[in-house]
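Box 3.1 — From sequence to structure: PLP-dependent aminotransferase family protein
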Amino acid sequence: MSNTLASPSLPLLSRASGETLIDQITRSLAARIDDKLLRGGARMPSIRQCAASLSVSCATVVASYDKLVARGYLESRRGAGFFVRERSPLNTPAPPAGAQDAVAQPMDVVWLIRNMFRQTPSIPAPGSGMLPAEWLDGELVARALRDVSRQPGSLLLGYGAPQGFLPLRQQLQLKLAELEIACPPEQIVTTVGVMQALDLVAREFARPGETIFVDDPAYWLMFGAFAAMGMTVIGIPRLGDGPDIAVLAELAALHRPRLYVINSVLHNPSSTSLSAAKAFQVLRLAEQHDFLIVEDDIYCDMHPGGAVQPATRLAALDQLRRVIYLGGFSKSLAANLRVGFIATSNERAQRLADRKMLATLTTSDIGERVVYKILSQGLYRKHAERLRARLDKVRDGTYRKVERAGLRFEPASAGMFVWADAGCDTNVLAEKALAEGLVLAPGSLFSPRQLPSTRMRLNLATVQDERIWAFFDRALG
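Predicted structure (token representation):
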């Protein structure tokens, strides 16, 4: 049932709506200000007047006005009330995502990030690097958050430990032991996701002008990050069982790299894994040419492992002598927690902890406590099993759809990605898709050279929308 208006500046409210009264008032008044129906400097109805007119509590109005102040729409003047804030480019809220013509923007790494992180409105993203929220377990995270919130408040107010929350690092020691990587807690440094881990490692062990090797194709975000530090980024062709060893040997002799960043297990974007033979060859070349290997294992828990599908990890073979191992929980648990970690030698761990303190002092103790709760209660293992089972359930059916669409690919037995060949420039295809409200991930973005490519990354979990396959039917004939 809707109330009557007492003022043209006040909205109609519906208590039958799923939206809270506070959110209805905030949204409606913000829209009136955006549409210039409420001019800068106009005085808003008093809290009592507004509450009486809308038949809500004064607390509801206070919360709504406070939200509008926080968003730059209103200002509070002591003793005078609330007024519409005069707008300027500095305090004008950004337009909703999608309001600008995304097709006209240059198609580069920033383009992909911007479009994949669009939240309003949400649009299908068959090229996404993340699982949909409905595939993850929000209640699992919420329960752990509630458990953490019941701890004494004093534990949640200070900085965390420089190397990270000790009980979490002790739990990570057990997790790594299951992968046959021996690593005590003092050799583990927590980070704000794997991206900060890559940043810390690159800054500590390479200098501007020096060379970093990456797989080609590989995770696109690190290319720009390394280049911004002044590093030279060179791609090593990635084959079905790992890097092209001949090319790696030739380029290592020529460029003397400081680091080589590699996905050993469930490579992004192909979901292939490193063979044991290639792993030994990579370690031999690292020793011969004196470079460190940075093993990014963010998709670790999407691989079943075991005797049926054994996985070869460089850190397990090398035991962290020349390998720096990176892991995290953004892909499998919750990106919003931003909890990652570095496992390495004791000396390098101390250097990286010092580097971390110079950059951010410490990481969030709260997020690390939440992940610790989930790991220590044995809940994460079952969650990872459910994720793998769900990916397995859609894998074969998705492969058939990929084939029917005329896309060529090499099937993988695990993981979440398909590295598909469209037979045409996928930059052009991505522009057509975006015009129809779909975000593809063209292959050019996954190479440090950024050259046009016929490849693109598809996500098994986010291509289940039939609109995506209808688009491919139209675009690829």
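Summary of the box: DSSP finds 16 helices and 13 strands in the chain.
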